[in-house]
Structure formats: structure tokens, C-alpha cells
Write a structure and sequence with these properties.
heterotrimer; A: 392 residues; alpha/beta; Rossmann fold; 2 domains; 9-stranded mixed sheet; 6-stranded mixed sheet; 15 strands; 24% strand; C: 287 residues; mainly alpha; ABC transporter involved in vitamin B12 uptake, BtuC; two-stranded antiparallel sheet; 11 helices; 2 strands; 75% helix
Chain lengths: 392, 330, 287
């Protein structure tokens, strides 16, 4: 009698535990560079992912969230494609995410289409990315999005009538130059010179000297983040090409915290365009930044972090809306038109292009207290990428 | 442990001995078919390993057999990759086999031109010149990004099914079969070359280049010949990558690729052909598994692997293995 | 026109001087010991991180961080040389390449683990910031500092080699190792000291480089190529060669980008190939 009860209890316990084990999992494959020259981007990206999960719990719509990380090593579309294939075929992921660089996103796009999986692009910033597959949704930014309106702003409100452009000779740089110049000249401005720097460029003296020779009213710069912004900022300062004598325009990476610290007071007055400003005083952002710094040894979030954070938000919300249904078609439909308040500000997903629509902020470097910060001086709401559907 | 064997005086006889297939070799090639049945989720990786192995063999031909240390061979890999990619994306020529041959020929043509310079320098100068040429090609491809697609990669590469029937599928069955067959053909050709009088002449050049003219050997011609053949093979490997992934970008020309393949070759053991294949397999599997376990610091363990191999197996892994099974070194 | 050219020359020369400090060690050890140490760049990175720690964690000034970087890198290199490298002297070039590349991987991963993947920033003392005006032209103060440091290093090296006994022993060993050994010189000890010196200079170069090009875990890989180019162009085992080679490369790189920016990224490789084709041993190579 006692034995029978014990057996029954054991059996019940076993049945319960297996049903707990049988709780379904939503697997998300995150492809990003975690080694090589872009390792920092990958590190910030996964930190954003982990922060969202820590804050909102590891369960959505009754299912457990599992993240599988894969290192793409850098700009290698063949590797990204293989990793995406393996994630789908071997690990049986439901969603593909990550993609710090455009080549990775383009490489994996075909896999998303063929396997019919939602692919959340958390950073890659070239316009054509979302056009490559109907399953791609982007939660980051596109370069034309922030630079086209910036070109217009620079002429209309920035007080610049002529500009010299200096960009790095690779996809993002060329994109930035094209869109800024388009916006600037359409508004009435004139481009007086255009130079390209090599992507790995340790020394800017030659290029800055060329700019100085032309003595333009303003300079527009786009270079990769990391060490180069500080280098070019210092090179410009060495030659006296600083605001207010010469207006300096650029995209947000130019004035990231380490660059500002390295440049010092010479950075005062640089005007940048970006979708995410670390110092933006807003309750959601303040909470986000504090939580991020606490979780990452004092390191501040950047565009990779917030793109990933919002990417996870999108995944969670679409899963809830689709009631846990993980098919690509269902999730993409749920994503279209979704809108929310992110640490960066209000953002939404355009139902036609599946791309991000958000506020573009114009910031100026100013001294606040004893620290240099990017202070928001203007903003343009509901900006879409200007290239989708437009003839190139 | 010295063994006195019968000295084979006849050169042709010796060569014939070398070309006999050992049972280990046959076992190896049969084993390459296993992924189809037992590891179908690893077929894409297997395909890329086969491609890299072919590339490694092409470098072994010049580095292991002819003694030309090159740090820029990705130049030919990338040229083949872009050539086959461009005829598909820009000219709409999507047939794979002819695209493969075209990629090889383009790379070979450039290899032939470059070989004139290669044979006139040695040692560090040769190494640095191959390095410089590799970087130049990379920068050139970047400068022509309107044609090549630059860092974003070439878009619009669409390869038709092989022989009209074998489509490139998501799992990678076609890709692996295709790459494996091309690898095997490349291997057979290389085997033929190194076990011929031409191959012996190359080894003579590697050992002592100054003596070669004294025995009447036109070493410059030999070196140019092998360099060009190697370039063709590297180009075919590059074209394979483009066709199986339907994408090509600047990283096919990168210094990393040149350096990685040399690392694989030294790891496996130079001058043995199988060393190239083994090195490619071990390095790529180690990298794949380690980066799966530890996406952020996997290269720490790769570094340890390399250091340990050098300290324990000076002739590469294949050298270490052959010592283990008691085979005499060549 | 002349003033612009002068500034371009000056900037290029300063960049070249940075490359010189980073590379001279490799040139001497390669020429002396025939040991291909591709981890040379990793010692540079080590020096950079030592400088960062000294300045940020210990709060000491920049001018203390520089010798600390030199000494730290030199000491670590002695440890490696004694325990690992000397087993590889007879191991053949390819094995040395493989081993030292493995070491660079380990160093880069360790740096990423300890310091993170982000960029390291240090604050320059105020007397090294900004620019100086001479004859109507602005020259960056830090670049002047770089040139001064490089010239001091060159002078010390020359003096050391020409006037000291150790220097004479090093010169003898570079010229003909076997004879030097035959004359009773302790070649192993000379190797160790020279290697430490060379790696220490790399560490100094790494610390100096932070302000100009930045520091992150990929420094060892990134600057390896530049260092190899300087060493090959200058010639192995020659300080003059490294100096001239580095200066030439720095100036041609900057001048190329200034006058014809379209070929700016090509020029350094064209110069490399052209020089090596005409003079395969480098400009001042010994063999």
C-alpha cells in the first residue's frame, strides 16, 4: 500500500517534471562579430540583448527565450550565410538576429527567405538591407535616414552655405557622403570638395591639410568609430579647423564618449546627427543607461546596444502579439506598424518597408559642468529612409 | 632505429613507388563521404573546409614543394572568386562549371604575369612582395567598389543548378558534393605534379636553388610554371566559394585569408599535400567548435593550439602522426 | 605651397618616427638572431596597456608611463625568451612564424579579456597638447615630441653600439655569429639582451602610439604589417635602415595621400614592392 503510493507519487512527479521540461523554447540565433576588428560592436550588441532579457524576464507568451551566439569574425558574408544556415538547420532557431555589419546581413538574407524565419537586423545600416528579404525587420538606423535630413538642416538652420566632405572609402562612408550631399545641395548648399580616406587610416594629416588648403566654411566627416574620430578631431584642431571658425558636421560616432575624452576641449562645437544620444535626459533613457552601466562595469551603451535592446523588444512584442506563434510570416506581420518608446525616443516599424522610422536628433558638443557632452539642439521626428522605393 | 633497405637507383621506379595509394589514403577519402550520412547539419561547414583545403593545396605547391613563402595568395583566391561572381552578376552567365573554369583562368593569367617578378627575388624580399601584391589587389578591388560592391559585397550572384538538376539547397548537399569533387580532382592533379620529374625538380629548387643550374635545370621556368598552376587552383577554390555561397566580398582578398591558409599549412605539415588538407580540416573545425563554445575569446585557444603543435610536432600534425605510425619521412 | 609641403613632410616624418620606434627592435633581432618574431607587435600592445594602467590606475604622469612601458615589455620579453623562444631558434622559419602568431592570438584575447574590446584613452599632459607656431606654420606639439623621442632613441642606440663593449659584441654577432662565438663571446647572453632591448622599444612605441593611433586588443595584428614593411624596406639588422625606411614610408604615405588621395592607400605597397625589387635586401641590409 505504502509502496504503491510512493510509486504513484514518483510517477506523478516524473510526469510533472517532464511537462516542465517540455516547456517550449523560442531559440534566437545572434550573428555578430565577437572577434577581430569589430569585436567591440559585437560585445555592445550582446550586452544590449542580455540587458533586455534581464529586465523583462526570460519568458514570453509562455515560452522560454534561448539565445545562441555565433561569431562572424567581421565582414564575411560567406561565413554569415553558413552560420545562418547552421542556426536554422542544426540548432533549429526560430528567429535570426544581430548583424552589426551590412555584409553579414546581406549574406544571411537568403537563408531567412528560404527558411521563412524572422530576421531582426540590430545594426547594419545600409538602405538595401531590408529590401534583400521580406523577412527582415530593422530596429537600428540607416545612414541615409540620419544624413539626408542633416544635409538639409545644415544649410537651412546650421548656417553653412558651402561644405567640404571627407569620408572613409567604404560602403557606409560613401552612403553618408551621397545622402548628406543630396540633402545639402537640394536645400541650396554647395559642395566645394570631396575626399575619401582609406578605411584603415592611422594618420589624417594629409587629408586635413587638403581641407585646410581649400579653406571651406564647413566640413562634413564620416569615418569608422573607434580610434579614428579622436585622431581626426585632433588633426583638425592642430590646424585650427575648429568651430566657430570652421563648422564641423558628422555622424554620431564622431563624438562618442571616448573620442570626446581624447579630443578634449577642441571638440567643442562639433555638430552631429544621430538617432541615439547617450546624454538625452528622458526617464526611459536614464533608466536604460544606468542599468547598462551597472551590468557592464561602467561602460556606457551606444548605438549597437540600443539597436539590440530594441531588437529584443520587437521580438518580445511580436511573440506576444502572435500568441507565441514563431512562424516567420506571422511574426513579420505582427511587426509591421509596431510602435513604442525606446531609450532613444519614439520609434516604429514602417509597414511597407519593414524599416525603422524614428526621430533624428541634431546635437552639438558642449561643456556641461566639467564634462563634454552631446547636447540636443534640434530634432526631426518620424524620419524614414529616403531611398526605399526611390529610383537610385 | 635504422633500417637498411634496398636502394632504388631507378628514378622512375622511385616515383612509381610514391604514387601507390596507401590504405590510409583510401580510408581518408572514403571518410570524406561520411558527413552526407552522419553529419548532414555540418554540410555547409564541410563544403567550406573542402574549399579551404583546395586553397591550402595550391599554397603547398608553391610553399611546400617549391619553397616560395607567400603571404599574399588570397590575391588569386579572390580574383577567381570575383571573376566568377562578376560574370554571373553583371553578364548573367550563371552556368557553374564554366564559371569555375573561368575563375581559375583569370587567376592563372594574373599569376603568370606576377610569376615573372616572383622568380627574381628570394627570402624576405619575396615574402614582402607577395604581401604587398596581396594588399594592392585588395585596395584595387575596394577602389573599384562600383563594380565589385566593395565591403558590402557583390549583389546579384545567382548560380544555376549544376547540370541543370542539382540545385544549391539550404542544407548544403549540393555544395559539399560539388566542392568535394573539385577538391579531389585538384588533389589528383597536384599528386601527379609532385610525383613527376617536374615535382622532383621543384624540390631541388627548394633545397638549393644555387645548384640547380649546375645540373642543367632551368629553375626559373619551373618556378613560373608551378606558380601559375597554383594560381589557377587558388582561383578555382575562390570561384567555388562564390558559387556555393552566391556571394563574394572583399574578405576573399584579405590578408587574413592569406595568413590563415599559411597557418593551416604549417599546422598540418608542408610539402605533403595531405598536410594541407589535414591542416585545413583541423584549423577550421577547431575554430568552429571553439567559437561556438566561447564566441568572444575562442582565438585564445587557437593560439594555444598553435603554440603546442609547434613545440611538440615540429613537422606539423601530419609529421607527428606519421611518426606515431612509424612511417619514414620523405 | 612650400609651407604646405613642409607641414606634410613634418607630419609624415613624425608618423615615420613612431613606426621607427616600433620597428627598430624587430630589425635588429631579426638580423642578429634570425628569429622571426611576429609577436613583436604584441609587445608593443603590452607597452601600450602598461602605460594605460600606470596612468589611469596608478595616476602617474605620462613621462613616467613611457619608461614603465619600456621596462615592462623588456622584462616580459626576457621571460618569454628564456622559457619559450630559445627552443625555437633551430626550429626553422615556418615554425617560428606559427608559434609567434599563436602568441599574438593569445595576447590579443588576453587583452580583450582583461581590458575589454573598447578603445583605451589616456590624457596627455598639457605641455604636449595643441600646436606650436614656427615661421607662420602650425606644428603639432605631440608630433614634435615623437620626433624628439625617436631621435634620442636613435642617438642612444648609435652611442650604445659604437662606444660600448656590449655594442661591439652585438655588432660582431650580427656580422658573423660563428666567428664571434669562436672568439669566445657569449652569444646567447647577447641574444637575450638584444631581444629585451628590441621588445622594450616596441613597448615604448606602443605607449607613444596611443595618442596618435589609439590602442585596442587588435593593435598587435594591425601594426605588424607596418612593422614588417619598415624592416624589409630598411634592411635587416640595420638601425640606419629602420630609420630611413620608416621615415621614407611615413613621408611617402602622407605625401601620397596629400597630393594624390585616390592612390593614397596604394602608395605604401607600391613603394614596398619597388624598393624590394631593386634592392632585395632592403636599403641598408647586411646580407
Amino acid at each position: 500500500m505504502f509502496a504503491r503510493m510512493t510509486l504513484a507519487a514518483l510517477g506523478l512527479g516524473l510526469a510533472m517534471s517532464t511537462s516542465v521540461l517540455a516547456q517550449e523554447t523560442v531559440k534566437i540565433g545572434v550573428i555578430a562579430p565577437f572577434s577581430g576588428p569589430f569585436a567591440d560592436a559585437g560585445a555592445q550588441l550582446i550586452a544590449g540583448v542580455n540587458l533586455y532579457i534581464a529586465k523583462n524576464g526570460g519568458e514570453v507568451a509562455g515560452k522560454r527565450i534561448e539565445i545562441i551566439q555565433k561569431d562572424s569574425g567581421g565582414a564575411a558574408p560567406d561565413v554569415a550565410k553558413r552560420l545562418a544556415q547552421e542556426l536554422v538547420v542544426r540548432d533549429q532557431v526560430d528567429i535570426l538576429a544581430g548583424f552589426a555589419l551590412t555584409p553579414e546581413a546581406l549574406g544571411a538574407a537568403d537563408v531567412a527567405t528560404e527558411a521563412k524565419k524572422l530576421m531582426v537586423v540590430m545594426n547594419a545600416a545600409t538602405s538595401i538591407v531590408t529590401e534583400k528579404s521580406p523577412y527582415i525587420v530593422r530596429t537600428s538606423v540607416t545612414i541615409p535616414q540620419v544624413n539626408y535630413v542633416f544635409g538639409k538642416w545644415a544649410f537651412e538652420k546650421g548656417g553653412a552655405k558651402a561644405a567640404y566632405t571627407l569620408v572613409a572609402d567604404y560602403g557606409p562612408g560613401l552612403d553618408a557622403e551621397k545622402s548628406f550631399a543630396k540633402g545639402f545641395t537640394e536645400a541650396g548648399g554647395q559642395i566645394v570638395g570631396a575626399d575619401k580616406t582609406p578605411v584603415q587610416n592611422p594618420d589624417f594629416s594629409a587629408f586635413v591639410q587638403r581641407v585646410k588648403d581649400a579653406n571651406p566654411e564647413s566640413v562634413y566627416i564620416f569615418i569608422p568609430g573607434g580610434a579614428q574620430p579622436a585622431a581626426i578631431g585632433k588633426a583638425l584642431a592642430e590646424r585650427g579647423l575648429t568651430p566657430p571658425a570652421t563648422k564641423l558636421f558628422g555622424q554620431g560616432e564622431l563624438t562618442h564618449p571616448e573620442a570626446l575624452e581624447s579630443m578634449g576641449d577642441t571638440a567643442n562645437g562639433i555638430i552631429t546627427t544621430f538617432h541615439y544620444t547617450l546624454e538625452r535626459d528622458d526617464p526611459i533613457n536614464n533608466e536604460f543607461v544606468k542599468a547598462y552601466q551597472d551590468a557592464n562595469g561602467g561602460r556606457s551603451p551606444d548605438l549597437f546596444s540600443v539597436g539590440a535592446y530594441d531588437g529584443m523588444h520587437l521580438i518580445y512584442e511580436t511573440l506576444k502579439k502572435a500568441n507565441g506563434d514563431t512562424t516567420g510570416d506571422g511574426l513579420v506581420e505582427a511587426a509591421k506598424g509596431m510602435a513604442w518608446d525606446s531609450p532613444r525616443g519614439p520609434m516604429s516599424i514602417d509597414p511597407e518597408t519593414r524599416d525603422v522610422v524614428q526621430t533624428v536628433y541634431i546635437r552639438e558638443v558642449k561643456k556641461v559642468g566639467d564634462k563634454l557632452q552631446n547636447v540636443i539642439i534640434d530634432q526631426i521626428p518620424d524620419v524614414k529612409d529616403p531611398n526605399h522605393g526611390a529610383a537610385k | 632505429m635504422a633500417e637498411i633497405t634496398q636502394t632504388i637507383v631507378d628514378a622512375r621506379g622511385w616515383l612509381k613507388l610514391q604514387t601507390r595509394w596507401s590504405p590510409y589514403e583510401i580510408a581518408f577519402w572514403v571518410a570524406t563521404l561520411l558527413p552526407f550520412f552522419f553529419l548532414p547539419t555540418y554540410l555547409s561547414l564541410a563544403s567550406q573546409i573542402a574549399i579551404t583545403a583546395l586553397f591550402a593545396i595550391s599554397v603547398d605547391l608553391v610553399l611546400g614543394y617549391a619553397g616560395i613563402v607567400t603571404l599574399g595568395h588570397a590575391m588569386f583566391f579572390g580574383l577567381g572568386a570575383y571573376a566568377s561572381g562578376l560574370i554571373s552578376a553583371k553578364l548573367g552567365w550563371n552556368e557553374p562549371i564554366s564559371g569555375l573554369i573561368f575563375g581559375g583562368l583569370v587567376a592563372g593569367a594574373v599569376g603568370f604575369i606576377v610569376s615573372f617578378m616572383i622568380v627574381r627575388v628570394q627570402h624576405l624580399a619575396l615574402l614582402m612582395i607577395t604581401l604587398g601584391l596581396g594588399f594592392l589587389t585588395y585596395e584595387l578591388a575596394n577602389a573599384l567598389s562600383s563594380i565589385t560592391g566593395g565591403t558590402d559585397g557583390l549583389q546579384g550572384v545567382d548560380i544555376s543548378p549544376i547540370f541543370g538538376t542539382f540545385n544549391f539547397d539550404l542544407w548544403g548537399y549540393t555544395a559539399y558534393a560539388y566542392s568535394l569533387i573539385v577538391l579531389f580532382i585538384g588533389f589528383l592533379i597536384s599528386r601527379r605534379i609532385v610525383n613527376s620529374s617536374f615535382g622532383l625538380a621543384l624540390r631541388g629548387v627548394r633545397e638549393n636553388v644555387k645548384r640547380m643550374p649546375a645540373i642543367g635545370s632551368d629553375y626559373r621556368f619551373h618556378l613560373q610554371k608551378i606558380y601559375t598552376i597554383s594560381a589557377v587552383m587558388a582561383g578555382v577554390a575562390g570561384a567555388l566559394l562564390t558559387q556555393t555561397t552566391e556571394t563574394v566580398s572583399l574578405d576573399t582578398l584579405s590578408f587574413n585569408r592569406s595568413a590563415d591558409v599559411v597557418v593551416m599549412l604549417i599546422l598540418g605539415g608542408t610539402g605533403r599535400l595531405y598536410g594541407a588538407i589535414l591542416g585545413a580540416i583541423i584549423f577550421m573545425i577547431a575554430r568552429d567548435q571553439l567559437s561556438g563554445l566561447n564566441p568572444q575569446y575562442w582565438y585564445f585557444w587557437i593560439g594555444i593550439l598553435l603554440m603546442v603543435v609547434v613545440l611538440t610536432m615540429p613537422k606539423g600534425i601530419l609529421g607527428g602522426l606519421s611518426r606515431l605510425i612509424g612511417r619514414r619521412d620523405e | 605651397m612650400i609651407s604646405q609641403f613642409a607641414i606634410v613632410l613634418f607630419d609624415g616624418f613624425a608618423f615615420g618616427m613612431l613606426l621607427f620606434v616600433l620597428s627598430v627592435g624587430l630589425s635588429v633581432t631579426l638580423g642578429l638572431m634570425n628569429f622571426i618574431n611576429l609577436a613583436h607587435g604584441a609587445f608593443g600592445m603590452l607597452g601600450g596597456y602598461i602605460a594605460v594602467v600606470v596612468m589611469r590606475r596608478l595616476g602617474l604622469p605620462f613621462l613616467v608611463a613611457l619608461p614603465a612601458a619600456f621596462l615592462g615589455a623588456a622584462l616580459v620579453s626576457i621571460v618569454f625568451e628564456r622559457t619559450l623562444f630559445r627552443r625555437l631558434y633551430k626550429a626553422g622559419e615556418l615554425n617560428q612564424v606559427l608559434f609567434t602568431i599563436g602568441l599574438v592570438f593569445v595576447a590579443a584575447a588576453s587583452a580583450a579579456y582583461v581590458f575589454g574590446t573598447g578603445l583605451q584613452v589616456i590624457q596627455m599632459p598639457s605641455f604636449l597638447r595643441g600646436s606650436v607656431e614656427i615661421g607662420g606654420m602650425r606644428f603639432g606639439t605631440y608630433r614634435i615630441f615623437l620626433i624628439v623621442v625617436a631621435l634620442i632613441v636613435t642617438a642612444l642606440l648609435y652611442f650604445g653600439l659604437e662606444r660600448t663593449r656590449l655594442g661591439a659584441q652585438i655588432r660582431a654577432s650580427v656580422d658573423n655569429q660563428r666567428v664571434a662565438q669562436g672568439l669566445g663571446l657569449d652569444v646567447e647572453r647577447i641574444f637575450a639582451i638584444t631581444f629585451a632591448l628590441g621588445s622594450g622599444l616596441a613597448g615604448l612605441g606602443g605607449a607613444l602610439a596611443i595618442e596618435i593611433v589609439g590602442l585596442d586588443p587588435s593593435f598587435g595584428f594591425h601594426y605588424l604589417v607596418y612593422v614588417l614593411i619598415v624592416v624589409a624596406v630598411g634592411g635587416l639588422g640595420s638601425i640606419t635602415g629602420s630609420f630611413v625606411g620608416a621615415a621614407l614610408l611615413g613621408i611617402s604615405d602622407v605625401a601620397g595621400k596629400y597630393f594624390v588621395p585616390e592612390i593614397g592607400s596604394f602608395l605604401i605597397y607600391l613603394v614596398l614592392i619597388a624598393i624590394l625589387f631593386v634592392r632585395p635586401h632592403g636599403l641598408f641590409g647586411k646580407r
